[in-house]
Design a protein that fits this description.
Length: about 500
């Protein structure tokens, strides 16, 4: 489903994060640019207001010097009836006349600066033509703050544009003399900011559109190996579990995913292989006793027979049934060994007692096959373990030796202690094991043909022996030479006897 596509989700996340970043960047950029432009305008207004104040002062100074050309400035105070400062001029109400003369002299009323001069009480004195066109009234709040020596900045919206206004107090000796107001139209500034907003408004969507295509392309390219893995995985069925996924040499998670998937396929292949082997082994091992049971029953029911014949047939059925029970028990135990290395209820065991018990049970069967069983065991050897499993291990080793030992042969069982291990060896003098099979002899369900009686082993017994040895924290090894039999060695951790002897 396209809605749940990782590629689409990656693209949407990429575009969403990029949109947030671009929006923050655009907003911060706009605020900084606007703040910078307005700050420069306010600085320009302050410079112009100070320039008007300085120009008026310099004009008054020039006018005063021209009235007393031969009197030095330090003696002006001695001149009777003279005015030596603009403050005195204002007190004598002659300041408006001075401002008008200044404006006419320098043609300031028609100049580029938009200004207005007010008295310190806020009364109108003079204004340039451009300022008058703005038709701005005198703002009492601004005048009040200016009388306190504060510079006031204001923004006003006119029908066609906005203006920025500064109310600048001219101060001398801590006293406000008069007030200058400078206006600056914000047409160009607002137009520049509108252009910036327009660029941000269009660039962000266009960038996001281009980024979405780029993100989709990159996500597609990055996830293409995943699509290849999915396509290859769909082609692999139960019959093709030997096939593997092509590993992309990317050195990232995709390569790790392919390797992990291949490892999983290998485990599945092994499991299915063992299931098939288990089924084949079960059917093969159970076929013989079932055939014997069927044959005995058919013979017994073919005609009436004396009681001893029925008793013989029942004994044969019981023997075949016991063999089936033994096979099923080994199969189930082997299947459980696949699940986990279970925690055993281990107890101190005297292996000598266990070995003698199993060997005594096998003596009768081996005699019928004309095989001699030789037991070599000295002092008791103790280990920690589960007696039932260890009995199964010894019995399986004897069973394997009996299958491959010819009549009049010998099976030797020896128990000893070697350093920290209890050592049990079972040796036969059969045909031996080919060198090519030594590494596979303990694999579960490994088939090995016996030359002594023509039977085939499915590997149940020896595979179970290795598992039993391993769960007891030991190991089992085999050595063999063609024509000289096989030697199986079991090493189990030795233990102290539970009582002093």
């Amino acid at each position: 489903m396209i809605v749940r596509s990782i590629r689409l989700r990656l693209t949407l996340w990429y575009v969403g994060i990029l949109m947030i970043i671009l929006s923050l960047f655009g907003g911060i950029l706009y605020i900084n640019v606007a703040g910078t432009l307005y700050g420069e305008i306010d600085a320009l207004l302050a410079v112009q207001a100070e320039g008007v104040s300085d120009s008026i002062f310099m004009f008054w100074r020039a006018e005063w010097e021209s009235s007393f050309p031969e009197t030095p400035p330090e003696r002006w105070s001695e001149m009777p009836g003279t005015t030596r400062s603009i403050q005195r001029l204002i007190d004598e109400e002659n300041f408006p006349e001075l401002v008008n003369l200044w404006a006419q002299e320098f043609d300031e009323l028609e100049g580029s600066r938009s200004f207005r001069i007010l008295s310190r009480e806020g009364d109108f004195i003079l204004a340039s033509s451009s300022f008058k066109k703005m038709n701005l009234s005198i703002f009492e709040n601004a005048v009040t703050e200016a009388r306190q020596g504060k510079k006031v900045y204001q923004t006003f919206v006119l029908p066609k544009y906005r203006i920025r206004l500064i109310t600048w107090p001219v101060v001398e000796d801590g006293r406000v003399l008069y007030i200058i107001e400078i206006a600056y139209p914000l047409r160009q500034t607002d137009a520049s900011l509108r252009g910036l907003r327009l660029w941000i408004f269009w660039l962000i969507p266009l960038t996001l559109l281009a980024a979405s295509f780029g993100g989709w392309f990159l996500a597609t390219k990055a996830l293409r190996p995943v699509g290849d893995i999915i396509a290859q995985a769909r082609r692999i069925s139960v019959k093709e579990l030997h096939e593997r996924i092509g590993v992309p040499k990317t050195g990232d998670e995709l390569e790790l995913l392919a390797v992990t998937f291949n490892n999983m396929l290998a485990r599945l292949e092994q499991v299915f292989k063992r299931i098939r082997q288990f089924s084949a082994a079960a059917s093969h091992e159970l076929r013989t006793p079932l055939t014997i049971m069927k044959g005995e029953l058919e013979v017994a029911l073919r005609k009436p027979r004396p009681p001893e014949e029925y008793q013989r047939a029942l004994n044969a059925q019981l023997e075949a049934l016991n063999e089936m029970i033994d096979i099923v028990e080994q199969l189930l135990m082997l299947a459980r060994s696949e699940e986990s290395q279970k925690v055993l209820e281990q107890h101190p065991l005297d292996l000598k007692t266990v070995v003698n018990k199993i060997c005594d049970a096998w003596q009768g069967l081996l005699k019928t096959k004309e095989i001699h069983l030789k037991i070599l065991s000295g002092t008791p050897v103790w280990t920690q373990g589960e007696q039932r499993l260890l009995e199964r291990l010894i019995s399986n080793l004897l069973d394997n030796a009996a299958k491959h030992t010819p009549p009049h042969g010998t099976i030797t069982v020896e128990l000893s202690r070697k350093e920290n291990y209890a050592c049990l060896t079972v040796q036969d003098n059969g045909p031996g094991i080919p060198s090519g099979e030594l590494s596979k002899i303990f694999e579960k369900f490994f088939s090995r043909h016996s030359k002594s009686d023509g039977t085939a082993s499915t590997g149940l017994g020896l595979g179970l022996c290795r598992w039993i040895a391993e769960v007891h924290r030991g190991r089992i090894d085999v050595s063999s030479s063609p024509g000289k039999g096989a030697l199986f060695t079991v090493l189990l951790p030795a233990a102290q006897p539970p009582f002093s002897i």
